């Protein structure tokens, strides 16, 4: 159960992002916040990975960043690093564009709901391994819970005050494409990182390398925005929380769980993020949680339980990094 719990705890960390932003400066742009988050969190992950690599160098063989897979076939590891880093960088602008064009409800549901499905389908296409009936049922149930929480099925659903799209407003096709792009970006990042883990990379070296590259490319993005919010106490506190907790700590846990579970399983487990965000919005920010959203919380939690509980006849992760669930 530890890999499942690690990914769920990572998703809980992810889910605090919205609450942290609510306590931060109102004039900080989403692009600036996202760039600062990746720069701080990715930079710390890179330092951790470098330190652990230097400690292991004398006794443990470190994977060659330019080498292909163990069989000598497949994309070189440096290419997988770039692909994973590109997925990290592409996710946030695509996600925020989708929510700005179609509202938080539609944008969040399409992005978070499509990510596990796209991950599972890509994993199936690339590795010819079906994620399994348990994954399929759990993903459908959890995604239904996300839809109920969003309030898309009625005016009494969703969390009040979250910028829900008006039911009379036409859905923007470019917005849907952007949200699907966010889900695809997450899937690409997850599968590329999983491929590195299967080649013998440690979770810390994988996350540190991927986010270190993303941090470097986030510097010009941050410099192109108004960074005055970072000079305030609430702004600095928000940036440190987003960088250290929702990125550094979260992705160390995420990487450790990803090395021991299927990418499709991990992607579905991270749907605990909207569950956490909704609960925090209600308990901490005082937002109103109507009837359908309460049902959605229960349904989403049920989907995660279905996935995490060991079922009879279901294969367990073999010892070592990269073992499927």
Automatic annotation (TrEMBL):
Domain EamA: 3-150, 175-307
Coiled-coil boundaries: none
Position of the signal peptide: 1-22
The keyword Transmembrane helix appears for this protein: yes
Domain of life where this protein originates: Bacteria
Protein family according to the UniProt entry: Belongs to the EamA transporter family.
Protein name: DMT family transporter
Organism: Herbiconiux aconitum
Lineage, uppermost ranks: Bacteria, Bacillati, Actinomycetota, Actinomycetes, Micrococcales
């Amino acid at each position: 159960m530890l890999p499942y719990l690690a990914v769920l705890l990572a998703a809980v960390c992810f889910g605090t992002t919205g609450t942290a932003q609510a306590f931060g400066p109102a004039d900080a742009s989403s692009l600036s916040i996202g760039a600062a988050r990746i720069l701080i969190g990715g930079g710390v992950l890179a330092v951790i990975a470098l330190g652990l690599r230097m400690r292991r160098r004398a006794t443990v063989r470190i994977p060659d960043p330019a080498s292909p897979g163990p069989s000598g076939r497949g994309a070189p590891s440096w290419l997988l690093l770039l692909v994973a880093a590109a997925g990290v960088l592409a996710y946030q602008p695509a996600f925020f564009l989708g929510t700005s064009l179609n509202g938080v409800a539609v944008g969040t549901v399409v992005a978070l709901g499509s990510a596990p499905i796209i991950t599972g389908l890509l994993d199936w296409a690339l590795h010819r391994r079906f994620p399994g009936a348990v994954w399929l049922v759990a993903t459908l149930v959890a995604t239904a819970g996300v839809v109920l929480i969003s309030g898309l099925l009625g005016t009494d659903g969703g969390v009040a005050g979250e910028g829900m799209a008006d039911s009379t407003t036409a859905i923007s096709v470019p917005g849907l494409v952007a949200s699907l792009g966010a889900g695809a970006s997450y899937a690409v990042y997850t599968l590329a990182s999983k491929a590195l883990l299967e080649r013998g990379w440690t979770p810390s070296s994988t996350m540190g390398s991927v986010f270190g590259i993303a941090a470097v490319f986030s510097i010009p993005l941050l410099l192109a925005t108004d960074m005055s919010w970072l000079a305030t106490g609430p702004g600095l506190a928000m940036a440190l929380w987003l960088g250290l907790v929702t990125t550094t700590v979260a992705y160390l846990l995420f990487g450790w769980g990803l090395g021991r579970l299927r990418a499709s399983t991990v992607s579905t487990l991270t749907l605990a993020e909207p569950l956490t965000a909704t609960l925090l919005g209600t308990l901490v920010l005082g937002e109103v949680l109507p009837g359908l959203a309460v049902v959605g919380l229960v349904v989403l939690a049920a989907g995660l339980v279905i996935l995490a509980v060991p079922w009879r006849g279901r294969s367990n992760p073999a010892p070592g990094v990269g073992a499927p669930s």
